[in-house]
């Protein structure tokens, strides 16, 4: 017995790719915002300057988590840039955030970036799937 079937798929590939790309960017933003929030709350507090300096970028948008005080620069030179790809970054522009994370020969580090990343990065795929479902995918 032989069965033959003929079908024609009418998939609007550019539209589907647009939906998927939007869901990935939104899922990445969800992950980065949660991570940045954990970083801010995990940062050691003396003056609060380092907490206010935590910033993040997803795509082309750069956002600061804290409030800029009088005399503070909005961002340090060397702010991450994007070259046409979906990019995400989280950083401290305090000038000493890295020393707090890893320590120096004078003080032990108290990690706050890595633990936040370890807690939140595994949720990336779940965040993308949630955004796809919200778009009807």
Structure characteristics:
elongated, 137 residues, mainly alpha, 44% helix, 10% strand, three-stranded antiparallel sheet, 5 helices
SSE topology sketch:
Blueprint: H1 13-42, H2 49-53, E1 54-58, E2 61-64, E3 88-92, H3 97-102, H4 113-120, H5 124-134
Antiparallel strand pairs: 1-2, 1-3
Helix pairs in contact: 1-4, 1-5
Account of the protein in words:
This protein has 137 residues and is mostly helical. It has one domain (13-130). 44% of the residues lie in helices and 10% in strands. It has 5 helices and 3 strands; from the N terminus they run ααβββααα. It has a 3-stranded antiparallel sheet. Strand 1 and strand 2 form a beta hairpin. Helix 1 crosses helix 4 (113-120) and helix 1 packs across helix 5 (124-134). The longest helix is centred in the N-terminal third of the chain and has 30 residues, at 13-42. It starts with 12 loop residues before the first helix and ends with a helix. Mean pLDDT is 81; it is low at 76-84.
Number of helices: 5
What's the shape?
A: elongated
Low-confidence stretches: 76-84
Succession of helices and strands: HHEEEHHH
The radius of gyration over CA amounts to 21 Å
Query: How many beta strands in the DSSP annotation?
Result: 3
Strand adjacency order, main sheet: 2-1-3
Overall tally of structural domains: 1
Q: What class do helices, strands and sheet pairing give?
A: mainly alpha
Distance between the termini: 37 Å
Largest sheet: 3 strands, antiparallel
Mean pLDDT, rounded to whole units?
81
Helix content: 40-55%
In terms of DSSP E residues, the strand content is 5-15%
């Amino acid at each position: 017995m032989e069965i033959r079937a003929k079908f024609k798929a009418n998939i609007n590939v550019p539209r589907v790719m647009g939906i998927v790309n939007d869901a990935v960017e939104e899922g990445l933003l969800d992950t980065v915002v949660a991570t940045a929030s954990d970083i801010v709350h995990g940062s050691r507090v003396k003056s609060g300057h380092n907490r206010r300096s935590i910033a993040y970028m997803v795509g082309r948008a750069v956002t600061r988590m804290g409030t800029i005080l009088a005399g503070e620069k909005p961002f340090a030179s060397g702010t991450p840039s994007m070259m046409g790809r979906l990019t995400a970054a989280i950083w401290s522009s305090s000038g000493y955030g890295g020393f707090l994370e890893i320590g120096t020969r004078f003080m032990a580090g108290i990690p706050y970036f890595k633990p936040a990343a370890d807690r939140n990065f595994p949720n990336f795929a779940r965040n993308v799937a949630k955004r796809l479902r919200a778009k009807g995918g």
